[in-house]
Each structure stands twice: as C-alpha cells, then as structure tokens.
Design brief:
The complex is a heterodimer of chains A (452) and B (254). Chain A is built from 11 helices and 20 strands. With 452 residues, chain A is an alpha/beta fold. Chain A starts with 25 loop residues before the first helix and ends with a helix. Chain B has 254 residues and is an alpha/beta fold. Classes of the chains: A alpha/beta (452), B alpha/beta (254). Chain B: InterPro entries: AAA+_ATPase (IPR003593), ABC_transporter-like_ATP-bd (IPR003439), ABC_transporter-like_CS (IPR017871), FeS-cluster_ATPase_SufC (IPR010230), P-loop_NTPase (IPR027417).
Chain lengths: 452, 254
C-alpha cells in the first residue's frame, strides 16, 4: 500500500454517495458503495500498468477533492448560447451542467412516443419511476451498476459517483431521424464531474446521438464520464463524441457498446480540447453479422495529452469492424493510440480493418501508437496499418504553385487530413461545426472557413 | 517575358541543366522537346520554384524580376503557372476549396475583389463545360482517385481559371486519349494571346499537331542544342533525337 497521502483514501466511504441520486434507494446505495470499494482496492492506475503506460493520471489522485460537484453553478453565457443554437436547429437536446441535468436549457418536447429520454437522476431518485414501461427495477439494480461495465478503475469510480446523465430507450422498430444532442457543460472552479449515459436500442431501431463536452474556463475540472450502449438485433446507432474541454481540464471517459445480430454501431470521437484526455471505447460484437465502425480524430497542441484506447471483441461469426483514427499533433503535444482487436475462437469469417495515421506538425510533438490484433479463429481477414509523418512536400509545392502561401497551404493540407474523419459523420450540422473547430485551430483557418 | 541565361542546376550534386539559354516573348508558344533524362522536367520545376534543386550558375528573369529569388507562391501570383506532369493527390480537399483559395489569393494580388460563391460557381461551370468536365468534379477531392486523363484535365481547368501570364505545360499530353488531347489543345489555344507566353514541355510531337508552336527547342543533356520552327518537331518525330545529337557533336568537333 502506498504511503503517499491521497485524498480519496481519506474520504469516509459511508458518506461518499451522500445526497447523490438514489441515495434513499437501498439497492442503489449498496451498488454505489460496493463500486467504491472496488475502486479503492485498486486505486488510480499507475504507468506500470500496460494500459496506462503512456498516460500519467497521478495528478488526479492529488486533487483536493474527488467528490462530485453537487450544486452546479450557472453555466457561462457562451455555453448557454451554444445550447440555444443547438435547440434552434431542432435537435432533441439535454443539457447537463457539471453532471446535473438542466431542464431550463434542454429541449425534449418533440420526441416521438416510443422514445423515452430521461435524466438518470430522475430514475434513480424515485423507485416509482422504475415501474414505468421502459425501465424495470431489474435493469437499474442489476444492469446499470453491474461490474461488467467496469472496464477501467475509472468506471468503478463513475459507478460510485455518477450524478446524472441521459437514459435513452428506443422501442423496437423506432427510427429517429433527428439527432439527440447531449451537451455537457463543465463550469465552476475545479469541479469533479461524473456523467453517466445509458442507451438502449430496441430491435431494428435507429438513432444518432451526439455527446458533446465543453469547458469554457481555464480551470482544473475533472470529468469522469461513462456511456453504455446496448444495441439489439438489427438496430443502428451512430454515436458522436465531441470533446472540447477547457485547457486545464482532465477528461477520462469510457464508451462501451454491446451488439446483437445484424446490428450496426458507428462511433466517432473528436478530441479537440483538454489538458489530459483519455477515451476508452469498446464494443462487443456478440451477434452474427454485426458491424462496427470506430472513427476518431485528435487534434492537440502545446502540452496537451490525448489517449485513445479502443477494443473490439469479435465474439460471433461473420462480424466486421472498420477503424479509422487520425491524429494531428503540434507543439509539445503527446498522442497515444492503442487499438485492440480480439477475434474470439467462435468468430470465423471475421473481417477487421484498422488504420491510424498521425501527422506531427512540430519536432516536439510525439505519438505512441500500437495496433494490437489477437486472433483465435481461422478463416478471418484482419489488417492494420499505422503511419506517423509530416506534411507531404510535394503536396505543399502543388498548393504553393497555385499562389497559396506556405502557412495557408499547410492549414489546407492539415484540414484535408482531418477531413477524412470528419466527412464520415452523417449529421451535416455537426460536420460543419467540427470543420470549424478544426479550422479555428489552424493558422489562417478563418480564410479556409470562409471558402467552404 | 522570360529570359534564362546560362542556367546550371544540380540535384544531390548531380548536374541536370548545364548552361541553358532561353528567351520567351509575350505572345509566343515555345515547345521544348528532348528524350527522357534531358532535363525537361527539371527546367519546368525550377521555373515554378520547386525546392531541393541547387542553382549553381546563371539567371532567370521573368517580367524584369529575378525569378529565382521569388518564392513559389509569389511566382504563381505574378502569373507563372505549371501544369504538372504528375498532379499531386490531395485527399480531403475538394477542387472547389482548392481553386477558390488559389483564385482569391491571385485575384487579391491583381487588386481584384474576391469572388463570391455564386460568381465562382458560374465561372467554374463555364470553364468545366469547355473541358467536358462534369460539375460533380467540384466536390471531389483534388486528384484523389482520378484517372490519368482526369488529372491532366484538372490541370488545364486550373490554368483556365487562374489565367496565368506564363504557362508551362509539363508533358500534359501523356496519358490523354485523342479526344481529351483535342479538348486540352483547344483550351490551350484559346489561351493564346499577345500578352501571354506558353512553354510546352513534351516528349512527343503529337501535341504539337494541335498546338502549333512558334519555336521548337531540342534539349539534350541539360542544354538547348537546336532551335527551329514548327517543322523541326516533325523532323524529330521522323528521325528521332539521334540525328540532332550527331549534328551537335560534329559541330562541336568542328
């Protein structure tokens, strides 16, 4: 046991979930307490652990408090403006401030009947809500807090501290064309924020979900978020995570999907801001003929650190996966990509392809990338590829020979590199938004923005 | 318009151009012919400002400016245009974005207002029609997955949109079928005017059937060893480069 003073070890366990949603429901309280015990047994990971070799999270353990922020402050005007602009686009919007649902900024009035979109705290607080058609007691007690969702020690911490989040239930055959936008605003000074989202897609249902984290202040917020996604047979979920935390923020998150026969899961992860960011994105292809696409783009500068760990488990036969991750690293930024694909013994005729391309824009920028294929079945097609490089000289010359100056040419090429991932997003509003966010970060990017 | 004097150019210490002289006036079309490895493409690249070449001696003046001292983008803004032999693929960047960026930069330099989206589209529609290019080209990534012919047509499209003063076409005819070749030649011919000069760098005479040059130069081992009228190209086609080479050697001996 470490002798180092770590604030979380001094936390009195019995008070931990005090005043959190579901505190008066014995089952919920017990589940939170046992999750905290599991977290405390392990503590924060160290760099001696393979999965955390390149990402140092020791600073989180030195925070003065890890307890969730309970009284959310008023969000900044900028964040409110963003919420209003999303609502005006007609999307179904749920806004959370420091992990707490803010119904005044949200807009969920126009949802079809067969779709239930609720705040998690609302469900946890009142047992009578469990008996609603969509969420039974069994689900809350046994599924939500289940150990199986604890992919890292941070997910155990999230299980213990989760304040609120979106719970989405799509009835079978329900097709929702308008995206659901979940906006998570980090506000206040150095808050610890624990959102938890649950998405349950019934058979042959279809939806697009956007999970957007935004921090507008230069403060040491810590967000530990988790999203679990259950996709029934024939259902299709496109999930897009947009990470735009403030420059001093730490963001550690998990997105964990389970897929049944013939289902489709498309995940996009855009990591564009934050001091230390880590996404663990996993999916289990449990049903035959299920398919997943994991796309990611990370754009980091200065001393920012970004780590993506993905894991795809091909469990059933004839499933396929496509993975496209790209990184642009400038300044002294450090990127990490670890893409694990496991083809289990039963998963014959698996088709799995993975690529990770990295663009280093400065000498100090660094990337550690590792594809990891573990194949235990015959008759499979698996490929992977990794590149780390600079902007292509021939391309630069080509642009300059058309009158475009060198800085702008670099920005255009960087934009083109990033665009390979951006254009995979099917929601036009989001594509444009991400394009602009990327261009905002590039020299003379405004000029390109005007031309798009 | 362009005056090149005793130009010596090396790459990685190996001399490619060895004392090249060339004088191109506004309104003229020059063809530079020569076998592989004679330095044709090096000349085209050096004029456009490609880095990585060492200029060991000589000079090049373009409209009274020291061309070799200008950056690549300055040359382009002042009207130098190179149609690439091997156009570069730029995934993720649409032709529309690429050309709008280039055109507005060049227009700014010429003191013209930037084109708005509608004017730009109209201009493009018009130019693309001339080249028998579908409008859907605009949204495709620059040269990404293009056939050889499409790439060359894209070069010509850029040329007609950017309206340069000095056009350098590097092996633009290679990879084109006869119909495409005619379209390209028509576009180039339509660009001919008293204020503009054109340099055609080519291996074969084929292109010169459609774009008749005022002068033909034979480039061999980094030097222009023979110049003449359009008829010279036809002689080269008939007899190959061997006889010019022999003639040049015997002259040197004499």
């Amino acid at each position: 046991m470490s002798t180092q003073l770590e604030s979380w070890r001094n936390m009195a366990l019995e008070f931990v979930p005090h005043a959190l949603a579901g505190h008066d429901v014995p089952r919920v309280l017990a589940a939170r307490q046992s999750a905290f015990t599991r977290f405390a047994e392990h503590g924060f990971p160290t760099r001696r652990e393979e999965e955390w070799k390149y990402t140092d999270v020791s600073a989180i353990g030195r925070r003065t408090s890890l307890a969730p922020d309970n009284i959310p402050p008023d969000p900044s005007f900028e964040a409110k403006l963003l919420a209003w602009s999303i609502a005006s686009e007609g999307m179904h919007l749920m806004v959370f401030v420091n992990g707490h649902y803010d119904h005044t900024l949200s807009m969920t009035d126009h949802l079809p009947h067969d779709i239930r979109l609720t705040s998690l705290a609302y469900l946890l607080d009142d047992t009578s809500h469990f008996s609603e058609k969509f969420f039974d007691k069994k689900f809350i007690a046994h599924d939500f807090f289940d150990k199986k969702h604890e992919h890292t020690t941070f997910s155990a911490l999230n299980n213990a501290f989760a304040t609120d989040g979106a719970v989405l239930y799509l009835a079978p055959d329900m097709v929702l064309d308008v995206p659901i936008y979940l906006l998570f605003i980090a506000s206040g000074r150095g808050a610890a924020i624990y959102p938890r989202n649950i998405i349950i897609a019934g058979e042959n249902s279809r939806a697009k979900i956007i999970e957007h984290y935004i921090g507008t202040l230069d403060v040491h917020n810590f967000t530990n978020a988790m999203t679990q996604i259950n996709i029934a047979a024939g259902a299709e979920i496109e999930h897009c995570k947009l990470l735009q935390e403030g420059p001093a923020a730490t963001h550690i998150a998990g997105i964990h999907a389970e897929q049944a026969t013939g289902s489709l899961f498309i995940s996009h992860a855009f990591t564009l801001g934050g001091h230390l960011c880590r996404n663990d994105i996993t999916t289990q292809l449990n049903g035959t003929n299920s398919h997943c696409e994991l796309n990611g783009l990370y754009l980091m500068n200065e001393r920012q650190h970004v780590d993506h760990h993905t894991r795809i488990d091909h469990i059933a036969p004839e499933s396929s996966s496509q993975e496209h991750y790209r990184g642009v690293l400038d300044g002294s930024a450090h990127g990490v990509f670890n893409g694990k694909v496991v083809v289990h013994p039963r998963a014959v005729k698996t088709n799995a392809h993975q690529v990770n391309h990295n663009l280093l824009l400065s000498r100090q920028a660094e990337v550690d990338t590792k594809p990891q294929l573990e194949i235990f079945a015959d008759d499979v097609q698996c490929t992977h590829g990794v590149t780390v490089g600079q902007l292509d000289e021939d391309s630069l010359f080509y642009l300059r020979s058309r009158g475009i100056d060198a800085d702008l040419a670099r920005s255009v090429l960087t934009y083109g590199f990033a665009n390979d991932i951006i254009e995979r997003v099917s929601v036009p509003y989001l594509r444009t938004r991400i394009e602009h966010l990327v261009l905002d970060r590039l020299p003379q990017g405004d000029q390109v923005k005007d031309l798009l | 318009m362009l005056t090149i004097n005793n130009l010596h150019v090396a790459i990685d210490g190996k001399e490619i151009l060895r004392g090249l002289n060339l004088n191109v006036n506004a309104g003229e079309v020059h063809a530079i012919m020569g076998p592989n490895g004679s330095g044709k493409s090096t000349l085209a690249q050096v004029l456009a400002g490609r880095e990585g070449y060492q200029i060991t001696a000589g000079s090049a003046y373009y409209m009274e400016q020291d061309l070799l001292a200008m950056t690549t983008e300055q040359r382009a803004r002042d009207g130098v245009f190179l149609a690439f032999q091997y156009p570069v693929e730029i995934p993720g960047v649409s032709i529309a974005l690429f050309l709008k960026t280039a055109l507005n930069t060049i227009r700014k330099q010429r003191g013209l207002p930037e084109l708005d989206a509608i004017d730009f589209l109209n201009l493009m529609r018009n130019k693309m029609q001339q080249l028998d290019m579908d409008e859907s080209f605009l949204s495709r990534a620059v040269n990404d997955g293009f056939s050889g012919g499409e790439k060359k047509r894209n070069e010509i499209l850029q040329m007609t949109v950017l309206e340069p003063k000095l056009l350098i076409l590097d092996e633009t005819d290679s990879g084109l079928d006869i119909d495409a070749l005619k379209l390209v030649a028509d576009s180039v011919n339509s660009m001919r005017n008293p204020n503009r000069a054109i340099i055609l760098v080519t291996h074969y005479q084929r292109l010169l059937d459609y774009i008749v040059p005022d002068l033909v130069h034979v480039l061999l081992q980094g030097r222009i060893i023979k110049s003449g009228g359009a008829a010279l190209a036809r002689e080269l086609e008939k007899h190959g480069y061997g006889w010019v080479e022999a003639e040049s050697t015997s002259r040197q001996v004499a």
